[in-house]
What we know:
Blueprint: H1 10-40, H2 43-72
Amino acid sequence: MWMMNGRQPEALRSAFVQEGKAMLHYALIFLIVAVVAAVLGFGGIAGTAAWIAKVLFVVFLILAIISFLRRAK
Length: 73
């Protein structure tokens, strides 16, 4: 029931794609916050926001690669 003919149901695949988009969205938001904070001279906040953006982007890349590999089967 969970897997149909070796494929995931469309709703589950769609939810995974939406989660990946949200991860990339938040990574871009933290990047923008980091740039604005750096321009305004808030070095600590800029560094922290840039670090969070990097972590979210790496997690997004890992999830995207896993998704592509699972879809290739």
